[in-house]
Specification:
Number of domains: 1
Number of strands: 7
Helix content: 25-40%
Bound molecules: zinc ion
Radius of gyration: 22 Å
Distance between the termini: 54 Å
Order of helices and strands: HEEEEEHHHEHE
Length: about 140
């Protein structure tokens, strides 16, 4: 009789599953969270969907200005939505995109960087009494 696979709790497996999306410009597959979703407005104007939750069909791109440029140049948006997408706002969108990329990089840093410093230094910085050693701020 074949060995049974370990019965992992379902929720444990679920939490490890990462949703991958394909960039319409370079075809790279990346986790959804690392991509930027674009949506098509009623007016057929292209827009960034920052929340990733706007209704309608969205397309995904790497969080990179070059992929955005490629997608515009090669008509990838037109192909994705099978229509003539209005990209007259491309400069504005690219600006928004760059801001979004910066914000994300900042947030990422904020989460992953931990400073371990001496207790007295931590107290100086935070202005609070620190009881734990080493202190994490
Ligand atoms: Zn890409």
């Amino acid at each position: 009789m074949a060995k049974r696979k370990a019965n992992l709790p379902t929720n444990k497996r679920e939490s490890k599953r990462i949703t991958l999306r394909t960039c319409i410009a370079c075809r790279k597959k990346l986790p959804k969270k690392e991509m930027v979703r674009f949506v098509l407005r009623q007016s057929k104007q292209l827009a960034i969907d920052e929340s990733g939750k706007s209704g309608g069909r969205g397309v995904n791109l790497c969080a990179s200005a070059s992929c955005f440029e490629d997608a515009v140049e090669r008509g990838s948006f037109n192909r994705a939505w099978k229509t003539n997408v209005d990209v007259s706002d491309r400069d504005k969108i690219e600006e928004e995109l760059e801001k979004l990329i910066e914000q994300r990089a900042f947030r990422k840093g904020e989460r992953s960087v931990t400073f371990r410093v001496d207790k007295t230094v931590a107290e100086e910085i935070t202005g609070k009494a620190v009881t734990k050693q080493p202190a994490t701020i």
